[in-house]
Amino acid sequence: MDKVKLPIQIDPQKSAMKRSTYVGVYPASLMKRFVGAVNASDEYISVDVKFSKDAQGLTYFQGNAKTQVELLCQRCNHEFPHSIAVEYCFSPVQGQEAEEELPEAYEPVEVNDHGEVDLLQLIEDELILSLPIVALHAEEDCGVSEDDMTFGIIEPEQERKNPFAVLKELKRD
Q: Are 48 and 66 in contact (CB under 8 A)?
């Protein structure tokens, strides 16, 4: 199968009128922020995008993006493979009023002065958001055991006297 490169800027209104569907790839090298957030990434990110109009006549586009990355385990400091698969559903808007009228099923995306959206940046943002907050192996695969994560025994804290106990005594009087 050939790797078809997808457009970076796209007009969602025109694409929805044509009911366009794009299946292809983006080179990972174009996604500087995403590549900077991971240790290594596949050369290409697979993307499917379908443009359409709903029953209300609203333009929307939905699809998915998939790739494989290498992350650094924060527990043992070794790399491990991680699959990323995101699904999205956007509706182009222009201005704050249009964004408020949008159904909850669609995530608003601002169009530029030419009515286009930066599809590459949207996909990159979705991929970054799908990364784990703290990258960790599964515990059974990690080189650090539970015993290695323990750093001694914490002594129980002495129970302190309640500072409001004096108020109880005043109330009795």
A: no
Name, in order, each residue with C-beta under 8 angstroms of 129's C-beta and a sequence gap of 6 or more: 86
Please give the model's pTM, rounded to 2 decimal places. Answer: 0.78
Residue 26's DSSP bridge partners are: 45
Domain ranges of the chain: 9-149
How many CA atoms, within 13 angstroms, populate the side-chain half-sphere of residue 148?
7
Mapped onto helix, strand or coil, the DSSP state of residue 85 is: strand
Q: How confident is the model over 60-110, as pLDDT tens digits?
A: 999 999 999 999 988 888 888 999 999 999 988 887 656 677 788 888 888
Rounded Cα gap, residues 100 and 121, in angstroms: 23
